[in-house]
């Protein structure tokens, strides 16, 4: 059941019991995709949306020479292909980074739900705006921030997005990506990513071992990434990892 979707849709206010029941009943079936398997192919089309209920994925584009640009990291509660609801054909591929559980939601079932529940439709519309805001920050990352700031900003963003769907554990979170994945997302070489991770670790900001990121100094990590979570509908003062194992609210 897409509980993570309900948590995301309630960022700007609670849904009614009926609206939650509708959201939870949207999936037609569940499928499983192994790590590194494609969830959606570039140029593909479907009459159903793919919603991540468990696992991590990425949206990516392959260039003619085989190089890959990762356009987004996707976490539980994220649609892989919400744009296909109106545009039908995908212009990028989506791959699982870990084992993923995918809920399939028929387009028509979602259209029917939005027609009957206006607030649900508005909440989904807001999701497209959040996606656009994240893409804008990624563009700034690749275009103007240093490697150090790029990586710090990305890790801050992932923590906040996971916290929204209750998948962050105060100062640490699972992030099953390789250094190659990070390089393809940040527009850096793998060597540069490795050096930047070592720099962040040497500065006492974080550790990244066995796909787990542990934030050692949240204020300094946030400062290093020039990170303001307002674009994610969060304020820094409302919730952030603490130094004592308790989240500050």
Explain what you see.
This protein has two domains: 3-130, Jelly Rolls; 146-232, Arc Repressor Mutant, subunit A. It is built from nine helices and ten strands. With 249 residues, it is an alpha+beta fold. Residues 245-249 have low confidence and may be disordered. It starts with a helix and ends in a 25-residue tail after the last helix. It has helices at 3-9, 17-24, 84-87, 107-116, 118-144, 147-164, 179-186, 190-202, 218-224; strands at 29-33, 38-40, 48-54, 57-62, 68-74, 93-96, 100-106, 172-174, 206-209, 212-215. 35% of the residues are buried. The strands form three sheets. It has a four-stranded antiparallel beta sheet with strand order 2-6-4-5. The protein has a three-stranded antiparallel beta sheet with strand order 1-7-3. Strands 8-10-9 form a three-stranded antiparallel beta sheet. The longest helix has 27 residues, at 118-144. 41% of the residues lie in helices and 20% in strands.
């Amino acid at each position: 059941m897409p509980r993570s979707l309900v948590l995301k849709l309630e960022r700007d206010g609670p849904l009614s019991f009926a609206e939650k029941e509708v959201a939870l009943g949207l999936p037609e079936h569940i499928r499983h995709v192994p790590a590194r398997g494609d969830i959606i192919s570039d140029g593909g089309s479907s009459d159903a949306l793919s919603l991540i209920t468990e696992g991590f994925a990425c949206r990516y584009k392959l260039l003619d020479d085989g190089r890959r640009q990762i356009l987004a990291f996707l976490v539980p509660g994220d649609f892989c292909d919400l744009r296909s609801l109106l545009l039908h054909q995908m212009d990028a591929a989506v791959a699982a980074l870990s084992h993923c559980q995918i809920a399939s939601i028929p387009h028509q079932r979602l259209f029917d739900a939005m027609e009957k529940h206006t607030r649900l439709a508005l909440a989904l519309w807001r999701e497209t705006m959040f996606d656009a805001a994240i893409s804008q920050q990624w563009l700034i990352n690749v275009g103007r921030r240093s490697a150090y700031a790029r990586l710090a900003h990305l890790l801050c963003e992932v923590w906040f997005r996971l916290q929204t769907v209750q998948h962050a554990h105060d100062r640490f979170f699972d992030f099953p990506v390789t250094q190659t994945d990070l390089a393809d997302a940040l527009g850096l070489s793998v060597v540069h990513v490795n050096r930047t991770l070592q720099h962040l670790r040497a500065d006492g900001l974080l550790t990244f071992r066995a796909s787990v990121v542990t934030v050692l100094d949240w204020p300094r990590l946030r400062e290093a990434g020039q990170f303001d979570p307002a674009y994610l509908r969060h304020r820094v003062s409302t919730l952030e990892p603490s130094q004592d194992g308790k989240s500050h609210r």
